[in-house]
Amino acid sequence: MGNLPGGTTSIVAMVEQNPAGAGTWMIYALFLIAGLFVGGAWSAYKSKNVPLTVLAGAVAVVAAAGGVLWMMGDMA
What we know:
Layout: E1 2-3, E2 9-10, H1 24-46, H2 50-75
Antiparallel strand pairs: 1-2
Helix pairs in contact: 1-2
């Protein structure tokens, strides 16, 4: 607290940023992307498009792994 001219007192409030929850939206985004690509891989599999199945499946696995790793980093 500090004294101002005229005898008034000032109160300074400080707000602490919470860095632990800052990347939560990224976890949701990665799982959303993984889910969309799993659906795309399933659709490509049903239409017997092997290269697209492999590509979409690989992207889904990478996005899901990224989401899990990002979530583990947020928990630490």
